[in-house]
Amino acid sequence: MIAAFIQSPVFRLLPVGVILLALQNTLFVDLQPAGVIVQVLLALAAAAGAAGGADRGALAGFVLGLIYDLGTDSPIGATALTMALGGVVAGIAWTIMVDPPWWLAAVFTTIGAAAGELAVPVLRIFIGEAEAFEPRFTRVVIVVAIAAGALSPLFVPLSRWCLRIRKPDWKALAE
Amino acid sequence: MGIYSPVRRRLIIALLLSSVLLLTLDLRGNQIFDTMRNGFQQAMDPLESAAEVVSRPIRNAWRGITQYDDLADENEDLRRQLEAQRADQITYRAAVIEFQALLELNNLPSLSDYDAVTARVIGETPNNLDQIIEIDKGEDDGIDVGMAVVSEGGLVGKVTRVFDDRSFIMLVRDQRFAVRAKVPGAAPEEPEGPEPPPTSANAIPHDDLTTTTTLPPSTTTTVPGATSSTAPGGIPGSSTSTTSTTSTTIAATTTTTIPPTEKETGTVVGQGRGEPVLLRFVRENIDAGRFEVGDAVMTEGGEGSLSPPDIPIGTISRIRRQSGSAGPMIEVQLGADLERLSFVRIVLYQSLEEAAGDGG
Q1: Of A120, B59, B199, B293, which is most buried, counting CB atoms within 10 Å of its CB?
Q2: Within this chain, do residues B49 and B171 fall inside the same structural domain, yes or no?
Q3: Is there a domain that residue A170 lies in?
Q4: Of the candidates B266, B278, B24, B309, which has an alpha carbon nearest to the alpha carbon of residue B174?
């Protein structure tokens, strides 16, 4: 059982998620481009989706979101749900191309992060908060999405390592 | 294998449903989740401390790049303000002492009557929607959910979640924050009829207040042949006659009637980071006077309120009057600087309703 856990994709994701959460709570709370807190865990979840497809994006988003919920005051499951959605949306890249190039992965990481951040106030409305959309929300989504896209050259390889995603080993048919 | 293969689809659906299940359980209140969260956060403490140390040079460099000009301007501005406020402080201190004395005289509660716990701010929520900070004091120090949190500048927020040795504070600017507030002593409009002349300059926020002030005994010495002397302060009607050269002690007692100070009440609500706090649901009462920019906004308190009365929230910074039945939109400049909170005080106050609930 322990061996199975060590071999599972979650094993590497947990320590990476915890370290990123520590950085999120300290460094990224201060580094606020345009007054917006960059969401690094969401960026990693979206990068995992772009790197490994919708299912791996959902898995990474779920695990990272749970870590985030446990480490902050947000309801448990709320961020897991929104980050999983972000990972799934980023995984749509795989419907276009298996193993997308870095720029396409960056584009889909951006889209996935935007979807994940957009889902946060939508979910808040579902759980009964009256005014979940704040006036600067458009700016928040744009900055979070662009930052995730900028981090994707770093986070796509990191998510591949965490989730043990191997590049497809295809050979040309001509030979 | 395509993205929508049955296995992948099932995995995605299972994860999303699990999230919804966890969310539902947590929102209904689950002790196990609270314990897990507390344990996880305690385990994260050393890691966050390490991250704090490691990332400090980066944060300092970032602040240096992005905030240098702002800080220089702010520094200059603050020096000017400090100069101006040194004189004001002396005046205000005297007024506060006088105000406290009057409250005590009339057995009225004041903020200093409540115990408070000072706590250090140890964290801030890392997402963009919630405006929540974390402090290093909790249930062990008597803190409870709903208690008001203040700083030197005024109201900061309220306690929303409490663990044994830490608590979470929702800041005033959070969109979910709301507290009953009042604008004491709004400037009255032109009086329509003859009014009794006011006998005190103090604007004390209490309706129909009548106070009896007893001055301390004083000693007055008069020269031979003098026929009258005046009590200290030159209060009219307190003169007395003396015919001897010995010292005479005069106990002067005056009755001062302070006209009822009008006040307007509403609800202060947050709008998120970077947006002004609003005072809503107020109806501008012409009889009571109109609001003006600069008027103080304070907590109203009362039986149902979680906050004690008379905590300063801020001052009115902008008024947008609207036609129709909707009251004016009032923007409030907070007294507390929420961007630079290091220490806060938690007022250990429970509303009467809540105290009654605890008791029975």
Answers
A1: A120
A2: no
A3: no
A4: B278
- On the question of pLDDT at B202 being above 60, the answer is no
Q: Do B128 and A23 touch (CB under 8 A)?
A: no
Q: For chain B, what is the domain count?
A: 3
Residue with tokens 């301007």: B73
Q: Could you report the per-residue pLDDT of A6-65, keeping only the tens digit for each?
A: 777 788 999 999 999 999 998 898 888 888 999 999 999 999 999 988 989 999 999 999
User: Do B350 and B323 reside in the same domain of the chain?
Assistant: yes
ipTM: 0.84
Size of interface A-B (CB pairs under 8 A): 159
Question: Are A136 and B63 within 8 A, CB to CB?
Answer: no
Q: Which of B67, B68, B36, B58 is nearest to A26 (CA)?
A: B58
Q: Quick one: B346 and B226 in the same domain?
A: no
- State whether B129 and B274 are in the same domain: yes
Does B10 have pLDDT greater than 80?
yes
The Cα of A26 is separated from the nearest Cα of chain B by a number of Å equal to 6
* Together in a domain, B185 and B119: yes
Q: How many domains does chain A have?
A: 1
Q: Are residues B76 and B41 in the same domain?
A: yes
Among the partner residues A55, A61, A135, nearest to B271 by beta-carbon distance: A135
CB contact under 8 A, B59 and A36: no
Q: How far is CA B54 from CA A26, B74, B122, B198, B223, in A?
A: 10, 28, 17, 63, 80
DSSP reduced 3-state for A27: helix
In chain A, which residues have their Cβ closer than 8 Å to the Cβ of B274?
35, 136
Q: How far apart are the C-alpha atoms of A73 and B124, rounded to whole Å?
A: 10
Q: In angstroms, what CA-CA distances link B140 with A43, A93, B137?
A: 38, 51, 7
- For A21, name the nearest residue in chain B, comparing CA atoms only: B48
pTM of the predicted model, to two decimals? 0.68
Tell which wins on pLDDT, B139 or B89. Answer: B139
